């Protein structure tokens, strides 16, 4: 009953605030009396005029009660509510009082009845806090319900632009593209489900108990009852099927030309129902069975249970948020305490740092004194070391110069050895060429002697007789041939002599180069304190070079032989 009282209070709050025109929170006693009488009437509560008059007695301030209307409302009206009243009639009475206040001034695109139903749904989904307001989650839930009822698709991105109220739905912002009849049907369907607890409704055929005839009825399923009417306008009610935890529903086979049959069994009666098709039959079977299961479990209607779960979830999230805020405050307080402790520690550290700085200053002063003393000693030691290093460097330089001089002398000795070997080899080559020239001169001399002998014999043969001239001529021809051969041999010897002379010139050049090197090394040796004395060849007389070779004759002998040769050559030509 606590939940019922909270729901009733929402509509009554609207009626009360509608009477409070100046928004002072006070309403005249006459208006409250009329409101209380009407509430007792629609809620089927006994009216007690005496208690009402006693509660709202006059005082010095006039016909206005200072005791408040809520205590009387709870004690004399809400405490007596049993639930046997018409919710629609109760809400319509409250709507009649508050409609002018809640309806906007602009014309609505929905009917007054639809506006009333939207207002009732708003009260149902609003929070139990005053002034009444509906949270965004419940707005989204309502809009989804209306969208599904209109057969349209829900678009989440448009939800941020919607604001709940009569203006949103009545002005057509939410139902753009839908005709008025579709919107009315959607509002009516959501109203029946959320307010009237209609779980399912629709036309089906029912078999009579007396005449056993089949008649079409409009069935309305609620959490504990199935009511059936002549038509869907609900004006003529034909009966009720009371549901409890002993009821059950069974599927029946087709018979008597009726299809899609099922049976509802109660304690006192059994009802045979025929749906329009198999889908409708299955839907009704599931809906009725689910309703019976909820009765067995003692659970409320599905939409109320879902609303309660959403509310509990919000309360849980709110509690978690409050707990989180409490923890944040505790952490903030702990943080402040920790900051104070840190500040105290910082001050202690600053004092300790000041003392440490003073001690460090003294230590640095002592260290500077010791450092100055050590610096003086280090300077003296450095000066001594520098002197020793200079002496060592001087000795090292002298030693390096001595070693360099020894290396130069060794290199010079090697080069002198090589020059001496070159000179020795040049002298051997010169001796070989000289012997070759002497042999060639001897052979040439022998050939010349032989030629002179042949020439003398030829001169003697010329003086022979004419008889012997022919023979001598023959011999002369033969000798001429021999002479030609000898001349060829002489030319060959001349070529060999020239070749030997070229070799001699080459050897002479080498000897001169060796002598030049020897002279240069002699100067170097003389420059280096005369450690080595070179061996020089002895002086020699100048040589005469003739066609017989060098140093074969003296100049006088050469001139005598030349004159003798010229004389013999002139006589032979004669």
TrEMBL record:
GO terms for molecular function: ATP binding; DNA binding. It comes from the Eukaryota. Its main location: membrane. Transmembrane segments: none annotated. GO terms for biological process: actin filament bundle assembly; isotype switching; negative regulation of actin filament depolymerization; negative regulation of cell-cell adhesion mediated by integrin; positive regulation of actin filament bundle assembly; positive regulation of cytosolic calcium ion concentration; positive regulation of mast cell chemotaxis; regulation of protein localization. One of its GO terms (cellular component) is actin cytoskeleton. PROSITE patterns: PH_DOMAIN. It is found in: Cell membrane; Cell projection, Lamellipodium; Cytoplasm; Nucleus. Keywords: Cell membrane, Cell projection, Coiled coil, Cytoplasm, DNA-binding, Membrane, Nucleus, Phosphoprotein. InterPro entries: EF-hand-dom_pair, EF-hand_SWAP70_N, PH-like_dom_sf, PH_domain, PH_SWAP70. Residues 303-510 form a coiled coil. Residues 197-293 form the PH domain. SUPFAM superfamilies: EF-hand, PH domain-like. The SWAP complex consists of NPM1, NCL, PARP1 and SWAP70. Phosphatidylinositol 3,4,5-trisphosphate-dependent guanine nucleotide exchange factor (GEF) which, independently of RAS, transduces signals from tyrosine kinase receptors to RAC. It also mediates signaling of membrane ruffling. Regulates the actin cytoskeleton as an effector or adapter protein in response to agonist stimulated phosphatidylinositol (3,4)-bisphosphate production and cell protrusion. PANTHER family: SWAP-70 RECOMBINASE, SWITCH-ASSOCIATED PROTEIN 70. This is Switch-associated protein 70. It comes from Sphenodon punctatus (Tuatara).
